[in-house]
Amino acid sequence: MQVTIAGSGGWGTALAILLHENGHDVTLWSHFETESKQLAETHQNPYLPGVTLPEGLHYSADPACAQGREMVVFATPSFAVRTTAHAFAPYLAETPLLVSVTKGIEEGTGYRMSELVSQETGRTVVALSGPSHAEEVSRGIPTGVVVACPERELAERVQNAFMCSRFRVYTSPDTAGIELGAALKNVIALCAGVCDGMGYGDNTKALLMTRGLAEVARLGMALGAHRETFAGLAGVGDLIVTCTSMHSRNRRAGILIGQGVPVQEAMKQVGAVVEGYYAAQSAWELAQRKNVDMPITEAAYAVLYEGRDPREALNSLMLRDRTSEAEDAAWAR
Ligand SMILES: NC(=O)C1=CN([C@@H]2O[C@H](COP(=O)(O)OP(=O)(O)OC[C@H]3O[C@@H](n4cnc5c(N)ncnc54)[C@H](O)[C@@H]3O)[C@@H](O)[C@H]2O)C=CC1
Ligand SMILES: O=C(CO)COP(=O)(O)O
């Protein structure tokens, strides 16, 4: 298959290596000409230290490189997905498969990433997500993900393109669930990092992850996602990897914030996109709009955007009104 990957950060590059190994003819597109030249000349990507890009990958900074390709994968940070899809749209008429692998929610509108690409291109878009740090995928470490699309045939074609012995791909019809799980868990991972940075323990993190998943699923379902998706790879699977891995940019940013580093400085020190920072604002807005209770996300928003002290935020989460883990209906059983 002829493939273009639109976005040459860590994730786009890791997927370019994978698809090249799968026998596809891959062009890696960069937003910046200088970045594209550097990749072509050095075969190294600073976002993936120690990984050498294989011979045979092509590099471009021109969206026209998508012309006539069979699959285009959008892999930029979320803030750049709409503009990138807009730039690529004139070249996609003969491309049957469009894929989004970005994890975020558009600020202000609340749209998911596949929705942005769809709006800009007028086409159905497959979403790919799951516990999949680029640092590990680029080194061939076995990984599992989900591809979602209401059109099963499109999902299965994308599954076939990515699947191999080190990259297991499941399909799902629940694009909303897959994308919301991906975007919202980043907020919880950032909070898990904050707890680590403040020196709290494994109990605290397990509490945060479990109750975090509950509120992620609550908002997801209010936005049309299926409950069971949050028990899958793009839900609890991705939550586990992001809250526990030192590869996670969200967790690393959180650790710094928990240690007292100012938010903007923490993101600068991480040096790659911290999607949970942006998702906290979008999730907070969506929760208000849909009237969904999301106490952890609300606390994250207050810490990240209003300067609230993280210790004080955690303390007030612990002392919220007492409640039940079960829904009211369960007590009647
Ligand atoms: N890194 C990872 O392990 C994984 C990342 N993701 C998701 O993939 C998305 C991209 O993540 P990464 O590749 O890690 O990000 P990154 O932080 O490595 O991305 C940096 C890239 O963004 C590009 N960029 C900057 N401004 C741009 C613009 N205006 N237009 C287009 N591109 C621009 C830069 O050229 C650079 O190549 C995020 O949503 C992330 O959550 C998903 C799974 C794994
Ligand atoms: O989504 C990811 C892994 O599945 C990447 O997480 P970070 O953005 O926190 O590094």
TrEMBL record:
The keyword tRNA processing does not apply. Gene3D superfamilies: N-(1-d-carboxylethyl)-l-norvaline Dehydrogenase, domain 2, NAD(P)-binding Rossmann-like Domain. It comes from the Bacteria. GO terms for molecular function: glycerol-3-phosphate dehydrogenase [NAD(P)+] activity. Residues 2-154 form the Glycerol-3-phosphate dehydrogenase NAD-dependent N-terminal domain. Its EC number is 1.1.1.94. Residues 174-314 form the Glycerol-3-phosphate dehydrogenase NAD-dependent C-terminal domain. InterPro entries: 6-PGluconate_DH-like_C_sf, 6PGD_dom2, G3P_DH_NAD-dep, G3P_DH_NAD-dep_C, G3P_DH_NAD-dep_N, NAD(P)-bd_dom_sf. Sn-glycerol 3-phosphate binds at K103, G130, S132, K185, D238, S248, R249, N250. Pathway: Membrane lipid metabolism; glycerophospholipid metabolism. Pfam families: NAD_Gly3P_dh_C, NAD_Gly3P_dh_N. It catalyses: sn-glycerol 3-phosphate + NADP(+) = dihydroxyacetone phosphate + NADPH + H(+); sn-glycerol 3-phosphate + NAD(+) = dihydroxyacetone phosphate + NADH + H(+). It is found in: Cytoplasm. SUPFAM superfamilies: 6-phosphogluconate dehydrogenase C-terminal domain-like, NAD(P)-binding Rossmann-fold domains. Keywords: Cytoplasm, Lipid biosynthesis, Lipid metabolism, NAD, NADP, Nucleotide-binding, Oxidoreductase, Phospholipid biosynthesis, Phospholipid metabolism. PROSITE patterns: NAD_G3PDH (PS00957). NADPH binds at W11, H31, Y47, K103, A134, R249, V273, E275. Its main location: cytoplasm. The active site is at K185 (proton acceptor). PANTHER family: GLYCEROL-3-PHOSPHATE DEHYDROGENASE, GLYCEROL-3-PHOSPHATE DEHYDROGENASE [NAD(+)] 2, CHLOROPLASTIC. Catalyzes the reduction of the glycolytic intermediate dihydroxyacetone phosphate (DHAP) to sn-glycerol 3-phosphate (G3P), the key precursor for phospholipid synthesis. Belongs to the NAD-dependent glycerol-3-phosphate dehydrogenase family. This is Glycerol-3-phosphate dehydrogenase [NAD(P)+]. It comes from Faecousia intestinalis.
